[in-house]
Specification:
Layout (H helix, E strand, L loop, with lengths): L2 H20 L30 H8 L3 E9 L8 E10 L5 E5 H4 L2 E7 L6 E3 L1 E6 L4 E5 L21 E6 L9 E15 L7 E8 L11 E3 L5 E10 L4 E7 H14 L5 E2 L2 E5 L2 H7 L7 E6 L4 H4 L7 E5 L2 E2 L3 H8 L7 E8 L2 E8 L1 E2 L5
Antiparallel strand pairs: 1-2, 1-4, 2-3, 3-7, 4-5, 6-7, 8-9, 8-11, 9-10, 10-13, 11-12, 12-13, 14-21, 15-16, 16-17, 17-18, 17-19, 19-20
Length: 362
């Protein structure tokens, strides 16, 4: 072998030896045993804690009835016999049903159909209350399915609610819509100035269509929080309203016992003052309860109140909502005197109003 080949082989062996010495031994890779513990990015599953809308509807639906009414409207020439439909909710096993006054107004004949039966029941009108737009009718029955009133003191803006009723009189039973509580304790005049006012109503974005009137608005426990009453529509949205159970329960109990609701009479139509209303009417205050209309020679008129006075206190309690003042008023009886603090222009005044008994018609 030549000296050149020997030199090349020696050089290659030297390089291989150096390369081998430079490689460090590797530690064995530890084995990781997977566990079932969720990582911090996992979202817990809360779906099992939410009630099923279908289950709520299944609970309430048997108590929601279809009401058909033949009526005679005195405002129409020659008084033809007309028909209209609505809804109601059974509140007692023996057949007492709460609905709207406007559903049975001017009724000549009232029939009720239960959703799970094909039998038509003749209904008797037990009593009506035009002020709250509520009425109680009765059918003859035993062990009928019923709904229950909710405690609406716990109801909050944003709570889910379900409206059930016979929308548009469609065949196949009641319709169901879902929404939230848009606001509480709404109050505003209905019709022309001087007519009655809706007090203590729940505003909801759940669809309430013609025929839903008198049906229940329920919470996710299936308890009645309101009685669907009317809807306001505009070009951009629709708002539904239901009489709050806090009022409906008292009206139902009075109609059951007396056939009418006995209330003290202030002799004034009231409206909640809003900033927009204050601007529109150039009012001196943007909060309080506006005297919208006075009954001539009524209690408030006799006590010296005037239209556009803004009531801010009832006795010593501050009031910002018309429905709040009405609830305080209904804690008194005819003959009681109540102190109202109010603003007229920029002057604060007081008046003592002696309440009378409310007439049968608002």
């Amino acid at each position: 072998m030549s000296n050149i080949k020997i030199a090349i082989i020696a050089t290659l062996l030297s390089l291989l030896l150096i390369s081998a010495c430079s490689i460090e031994p590797q530690e064995p890779t530890p084995t990781v045993t997977p566990t079932s513990t969720p990582t911090s990015t996992q979202t817990p599953d809360y779906s099992s804690a939410l009630p099923s809308i279908a289950d709520v509807v299944e609970k309430v639906l048997p108590s929601v009835v279809y009401i058909s009414v033949e009526y005679d409207d005195p405002s129409i020439l020659f008084h033809p016999t007309l028909t209209k439909t609505g809804s109601g909710v059974i509140l007692s096993p023996d057949g007492y049903i709460l609905t709207n006054n406007h559903v049975v107004e001017y009724a000549l004949h009232v029939e009720v159909l239960l959703p799970e039966e094909y039998t038509t029941y003749e209904a008797e009108i037990i009593g009506t209350d035009p002020l709250s737009d509520l009425a109680v009718i009765k059918i003859e029955g035993h062990n009928l399915p019923t709904a229950s009133f909710a405690d609406t003191s716990k109801l909050r803006i944003g709570d889910w609610v379900i409206a059930i009723g016979n929308a548009l009189g469609l065949e196949g039973g009641p319709s169901v819509t879902l929404g939230i509580v848009s606001n509480l304790e709404r109050s505003f005049p209905r019709g022309a100035v001087g007519e009655s006012t809706f007090y203590d109503v729940i505003q909801t974005d759940a669809d309430i269509n013609r025929g839903n009137s008198g049906g229940p608005l329920v919470n996710l426990e299936g308890d009645v929080v309101g009685i669907n009453t009317f809807v306001l529509s505009s070009e951009v949205e629709t708002a539904g309203f239901a009489v709050n159970t806090s009022t409906a329960r008292l009206v139902y109990e009075d109609l059951m016992e007396f056939g009418k609701v006995v209330r003290p009479f202030l002799g004034a139509t009231l409206q909640t003052v809003t900033p927009a209303l204050a601007t529109e009417l150039s009012l001196s205050k943007n909060r309080g309860v506006l005297v919208w209309f006075l009954v001539p020679d009524g209690p408030s008129d006799q006590a010296g109140l005037e239209v556009n006075d803004i009531i801010t206190r009832f006795h010593d309690q501050e009031v910002d909502e018309a429905s709040q003042l009405i609830k305080l008023l209904w804690q008194h009886d005819a003959g009681d005197s109540v102190k109202l603090t109010f603003w007229r222009d920029n002057l604060q005044k007081e008046a003592w109003v002696t309440l009378s008994e409310r007439p049968d018609e608002p």
